[in-house]
Predict the structure.
Amino acid sequence: MQKLAIGIDIGGQSSKCGVVTHEGTILCQSVVTSLIDSFDEYLTLLANTVKDLVRQTADRGTVAGIGIGAPNANRLDGTIRYAPNLKWARGADGKPGVVYLADRLQEATGLHVRITNDANAAARGERTYGVAKGIDDFIMLTLGTGVGSGIISHGRLVYGHDGFAGELGHVCVEQDGRQCNCGLKGCLETYASAMGVARTAREFLKKDSGKSILHNLDPEKISSKDIYDAAVQGDSLAKEIFTYTGRILGRAMGDFVKFSSPQAIVLFGGLTKSREFFHDDMVKAMNDNLMQIWKGQIQILYSSLKESDAAILGASSMVWSPDEV
Ligand SMILES: [Zn+2]
């Protein structure tokens, strides 16, 4: 009987669970809500979903363990620490707290549980099954609602002494810049994420003479998809928004290269769907911010995995190789 792994991708809205083979085929999956206030209730829901998935795939193989990718997850102690967007991870005072997710899920299911940050899980997914196969040194940037990152060096994820290394979304790209949810100002995430692009649109619209079709939308509700749609229609303000985003992101990528000298930077997440409007500016800004030794040398790769699958695959791969990526 073959061995199977369960991969769980925990997000603020929903948690996606899948049963995965060693070759990276997702045999079946299930989605549960993350919008639950009580940790105990969330845990029961997740454990029951895992048990259902184990039952559904019992004739295909034996589940050997669970891997989880989640925001603010710490691989070293199995906790989720101070995640602002997970309702059930709040303390009695309503503020983000510390929950022992790995231990508790292990108790509830009897399966061994490993946990890592969601961007690290995505990096593992790309290296095991996606565009970064065989690449030992790369940086994964997830451009979603926020900006996450996973740094692979010598074939291993960089964790740092406390398990939290690689928070490149919170590198300062603008002194005294935009306020970030993390408490700092000018973080990359406030510019190069879906949220950041929408903020740029609101700023640019205030200065615009009124020709842009984006003026027809409620500025508070504007999304990165609206801006993409406008750019596709040739709207010059929408295109300027992506140019601005690409330049900031590219310059930051140049700084990241100087730190770990990667072979490639892998980009993943919703914002990459708009890459035709920012790719060239991003690559130019990166190379303009690199010394001669790296100019033109860094590959830019876009994830080839289906977005919902990459995190499940990456999380599940921890079951096969717990310490390596
Ligand atoms: Zn920040």
